[in-house]
């Protein structure tokens, strides 16, 4: 599933024999472009690094795909939430590689690391640890931005409540927020 056969007959995952998508350049995919899909921001990991992160999470305890998404969001302090379109094909690849097994758990699949997956992590422990450290790094600039965004939200809510449903005041708030959004989008 999701695999390709090379001209030598070997089976490869959806990202080619070396973890690179055959039509998108290097390991970051998309010819080195660092932006995520449709405005999701820069990628935290390339496809190859994500494989190690997901496998490490499954090594810690068996997980469903949705649990992996939520755990990555939590560990990054909300700075990174992978899309299902990134996680589920990767789980299928790890399954094809023999690094995880999947068992039915209601209408979900519970992924468990295999001995082959454990050996793969052990062989790449230094890299796995470096990637994990990057995920855990606090990003002070991003945290500062998040705090300001929260202040703007709170001010808008408070002023909207204080306006007593005054249409002119509500329109002023909307206009300020629209202008701020447009100014930021224009950067």
Tell me the major beta sheet: 2 strands, antiparallel
Give me the Rg, rounded: 21 Å
- The CATH homologous superfamily of the largest domain corresponds to Winged helix-like DNA-binding domain superfamily/Winged helix DNA-binding domain
Q: What is the count of DSSP helices, taking H or I runs of 4+ residues?
A: 7
Mass-distribution shape: elongated
Sketch the topology as an H/E string, one letter per element: EEHHHEEHHHH
**For this structure, what is the CATH class of the largest domain?**
Mainly Alpha
How big a fraction of the residues is strand? Answer: 5-15%
Overview features:
mainly alpha; Arc Repressor Mutant, subunit A; two-stranded antiparallel sheet; 54% helix; disordered N terminus; Tscrpt_reg_PadR_N; WH_DNA-bd_sf; PadR family transcriptional regulator; WH-like_DNA-bd_sf
Protein architecture, described:
- By secondary structure, this protein is mainly alpha-helical.
- It has two domains: 44-137, Winged helix-like DNA-binding domain superfamily/Winged helix DNA-binding domain (Arc Repressor Mutant, subunit A); 139-186.
- Helix content is 54%, strand content 9%.
- It contains seven helices and four strands, in the order E-E-H-H-H-E-E-H-H-H-H.
- The chain has helices at 47-60, 65-75, 84-96, 115-123, 125-136, 140-162, 167-185, and strands spanning 4-5, 11-12, 100-105, 108-113.
- The strands form two sheets. It has a two-stranded antiparallel sheet with strand order 1-2. It has a two-stranded antiparallel ribbon with strand order 3-4.
- A hairpin with a 5-residue loop joins strand 1 (4-5) and strand 2 (11-12).
- Helix 1 crosses helix 3 and helix 2 crosses helix 3.
- The longest helix is centred in the last third of the chain and has 23 residues, at 140-162.
- The protein starts with a strand and ends with a helix.
